[in-house]
Prior knowledge:
- The chain has helices at residues 2-11, 16-30, 36-39, 53-65, 69-78, 81-89, 97-105, 134-143, 166-183, 231-238, 264-274, 291-299, 318-328, 342-351, and strands at 148-151, 188-197, 215-220, 245-246, 277-281, 304-307.
- By secondary structure, it is an alpha/beta fold.
Amino acid sequence: MVSAALRDFAWVQSSTQSRWGYKRAAAAVRQLERPLPDVLDAGILPRIHGIGPASTRIILEVLEHGFSPTVEHAIAASGQQHEIARRRALRTGFLSRAEVVRIIAIDVPSMVNVEDYRGDCQMHSVWSDGLETIAQMAEGAMARGWNRIAMTDHSKGLAIAGGMSIETMRRQHDEINALNHTFEGRFRVLKGVEANIFTDGTLDLKGEELAGVEMLLAAPHSKLRLLDDQTDRMLAAVRTPGVHVLAHPRGRMSDSRPGITADWDRVFEEAAARGVAIEIDGDPARQDLDYQLADRAREGGCLFALDSDAHDTQAFIYTDTAIAHARLAGIPASRVINCWDLPRLLGWLDDHRG
């Protein structure tokens, strides 16, 4: 609620500097490990990086009233009530860092937990739009106690994100093979790729282009603001031979776009029948699927991948967000491919390779 008020206030600012200042404050609130009421000391907010006096005033108003009079007055004066209402509707089903911390700390043996987690299945390196090398990502994963990762840089159809050509992907595979040789069985980097789902449901990679790929993610990156039904697009992607994971299925983004509209129960039914895992992407701006849709996927019999979508090792913490959504959806570790031992995961990948 506090972060949302700060984002609303940012939107109605006329100054770019003020807009970014309130956005930074909203991000700082979302990243707090403890709920704001617990952070207060005798009603005073301690100094928090990214939060200045003007943002503090709004925070304290929300904590006292449940809303900020300052923000509401600014929205009314701006004449942008409709746009603010639209943006508020795009924030449903998102968890703050404090909520994530609380949820993953609850002891419920029947649900997936952090201790079950053995490795992330979606991340990006300098080979596409990531910030670190594969070796750095692997070292960061080992520091977290994982025994494998899937390196899933973007494929050729997403040039805006530095998508790899086929030749580039082959060179990346050579680098991964060399890295795995140095790990001597202690750790495994899987050769993955995040393929782009075109509007007709086909992928930008097919046939021999997928040679050497061990894990194939299919993800939508276009037509994510349309309200038209795109069930056929998503069904076609799930039915594509060799697809292992339907990644960030809706393609939603907080404050920005609603993502794909589809008959998700039909998509989940098809995915379950074909053994395609449904991803819960833990990037704070995505959280896709959220726990409500994930619960329906669980009821439909789906497998799941709980991933960070990291572009550097610091973002591995986003796996906590994915795990929190899975716990709210009642998903057990047995249905999560990140929690399987490596031989079981490799067997499943082989069985579902096109």
